[in-house]
Structure formats: structure tokens, C-alpha cells
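Explain this record to help learners:
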Amino acid sequence: MTPLIIEAALNGTTSKARNPNTPKSAEEIANDALACLAAGAAIVHTHIEGYQTSGEAAVAQYIKGWAPVLDARPDAILYGSIANGRTPEERFGHYRALAKAGMRMATFDPGSLNLATHGEDGLPGSDSFVYRTSFTDIAALIELLAESRLGPSIAVYEPGFLRATLAYEKAGRLPGGAFVKFYFAGPYNFLDGRRSNVTFGLPPTRKALDAYLEMMDGSALPWAASVLGGSVAGTGLARTAIECGGHVRAGLEDYCGEDHPTNADLITEVVEISRASGRPVATPDEAARILNLPR
């Protein structure tokens, strides 16, 4: 039985006002990352504050939070996120230096979608935007990841994202170490944490997962399930993914609810489900082998 890879997504757009346990400072990120690795996570994904910082400044902020983690756990698989910008270099160029600093994966969003906060009338709020990655940007990012020997962490918000991914796989152009993440939309708006119908993609149900798995027929890519704006464990999707041979992403970047868990709490919850299902949990080294991550 393939060990379960658990990815911890530590912060993202989740504010301390929504959950005071959300790590934001470099020290908090380092402490949370180490706690999640100790709890059973093999991969840790983090953001720096905001998306405006790019280039060398972004690299410095990421490394400040990651250095203590890599000192204590050199086996850790860490990766960051994109930056705002108009060109692929502005958005993704910091990946090169982060790869040299120890990052082994990189965020790869192969598509575009509408996102917004929740408006008072139940429609999209004033904070509304298109999260865009064109096919031209996708091609440039593929080249950068291959050059930097980084495994693509592939976010699938909508079925079209998966179609683009599978096209690259079939063409033999997808860099090694690719890991597909199915993002299902929970009952909360993951941008502002409010209960909302303003969301994206498919709901966190077995039928929705089966739709993605039908599209994956013939693909060799490993995949994971996550719920943005809800609970991957509470919806039952973590158990379903584990029993279907997939993997799981959890953490405060994705989680929304009325309580205030820590990241380590959410990872422990998934570990307990996996153990109850009789499936072992992967170490970072095992995860790297399963994903065939470049060294």
C-alpha cells in the first residue's frame, strides 16, 4: 500500500482575525512547519505576507521562515507561492533562487478563474478579480520548473485546469515530481471566511471526486484532495481520498469553520483517519520517492 502523503498548507490568505493560530511571521511559520512535520506532514506550503513582494525581496522573506526548518529537518519538502506581476518572470522568477535555497516544489496553477469575497446581497463582493494564468504563462512556467528541477504542485480549481495538465503529461512535457491537487469548494468563502455561495469549482463530494478521477483515467500522476473554505476531514473527503489511493492536503490556508484549530491539529486529524484506514503515512523521503521529485 502506497504511504499517504500529507501536505500542510500553513497560511495563505487566512488572517489572524479569522484564526489567531495562523502563522504569519517568519518565526511562527518555522515553528508551525516543524510542528506539522512532527505530526505527520511530508510537504509544507507557505506564503509570505501579501502577493506584492517579488524577486529577491520575496526570496529573503521565504528563506527567513524556512532556514530554521531546513536546519532541523533537511529532509523537509518546502515550497512557496506566486507573486503579483504582469509577466511570468515577475510572478515566478523568485522560484529559481528558492530552488537553490532548498525549495523542491513550486506552485503551478494551470488555468484561470473568477474569485471574489462574499457580498452582503449574496453575490460577489467588491473584492472581485480574475486569477489568471494564460497558456503562454503556463508554457513559460513549465520551462522554468524544468530548468530549476522543481516539482510542479498543480492546483486544480476547475476541470479545465486538469485538462491542461493532462495535455502536458501526454505530450511528455510535464516536469518530474508533479503532484495534482484537487481543490473542492466548501461552504465558506475561502478568501474572507464567510458562509457563501460565491465560490468556485466542484463541491467536496464523492461524485465530484469521481468526476476528476474519470478524467485522470490513464494518467500516472499522483493526486491529493483538499477543501478550500471548509474541512477536508469534516466533509469525509479525506477518508474517501485515502481509501481511493490518493493523498490529502490540509491546513489553515484552506480550512474554514467556527472553531480555531492549529495547523498541527488539522494534520493530526488526517493522520488518525489514515491509521484507522490501515494506511501508513509517508515521511518526506518517502513522499519524494513517490512523487519522483528531482534532487
